[in-house]
Amino acid sequence: MFHSHKESVSSIIITNREEINEVISVGQDGMLKLYSIKNKKLTRNVPLSSLPLSSCISYYTSSHRNILVAGSWDNTLIFYDIEFGRIIDVLQGHEDAVSCLALSTTRQIIISGSWDCTAKVWQSYSSGTKIKPAECLIAQLDHDSKVTCINISGDETLLISGTEDGEIFLWNMDTYNLQFTVKAHNCKINAMVFDQEGKSIISCAADKMLNIIDIYTSTQIYRTTIEYEPLTLTWFKTFLLIGDNNGNINVWNRQGAIFITQIHCHDGPINTLSVSTKNNIILTGGKDKR
To answer: Rounded to two decimals, what is the model's pTM?
Structure first.
């Protein structure tokens, strides 16, 4: 357990998934934190923004530089070189706060979702050149309300985006054409994942509902209510982990559509979940600043 952020933890990632050397978190305090799992201590503390950070991703360039990208409420994507410990560029990407990020490693692209009602597809930073929005913007995906969450299918052919008014958008990643849109909830969608076969979309929202939508027919095939509002979703092997606003991880078995167990781990909402299946580690970040 690490007590380090002065405000809510927004996003957690594992930088080296093979050896699980370091964990990165960003928070509402605008800070980036690096932790050593092995030594169980904070190794780096970096102010990235004067405004809250909503999300982060990391990737390796062709020259093996480890780049972290953080989405900020100041409408930017902040690119940080982990090895050299410095901000290398700031992309003025949106007209309003960046709410979520996703990464396609095979396509070498970054997708950012924003309160400006768009998701934008960017060529990832790869060299020492300045990032120019006009040159690295691949596509702009327009929505009817604020984009709150995005995710990519396992084979990286499909992109989903969820909005503040409960709509799910499914996009083709070869053409960025809209496949369908469906009103899955009557309120803000908090998180979405594809199922492990890539045949359906699982979403959760402020209405305490867990929804499953078939990607071929765009119809709802399952729906259940959760005791506390579900905020974040991630797969751990064959189990879906659901972090809620009461500090619980709810473990759900898709096969039998049953809840296996509930683990209480935070005082208040769980904002982010990350897993390492190889090391059997689940990482959580919450509103309780840890």
So the answer is: 0.94
Q: Let me know if 179 is exposed, middle or buried by CB neighbors in 10 A (0-12, 13-18, 19+).
A: middle
Rounded-to-integer distance, Cα 84 and Cα 254, Å: 42
Q: Residue 175 in 3-state DSSP?
A: coil
For residue 153 the two structure tokens come to 């299918």
CA distance 111 to 139: 9
Contacts for 132 with CB less than 8 Å, ≥ 6 apart? none
**Rg (alpha carbons) of the chain, rounded to whole number:** 18
Residues of the chain scoring pLDDT < 70: 1-3, 16-20, 127-129
| SS3 call for 70 | strand
Whether the Cβ atoms of residue 210 and residue 223 lie closer than 8 Å to each other: yes
pLDDT in tens, 18-47: 555 789 999 999 999 999 888 888 999 999
pLDDT 10s digits, 120-157: 999 988 766 677 788 899 999 999 999 999 999 999 99
DSSP 8-state assignment for residue 124: P
Helix intervals (H) in the chain: 133-136
> All domains of the chain, ordered by start, with CATH?
1-142 (2.130.10.10)
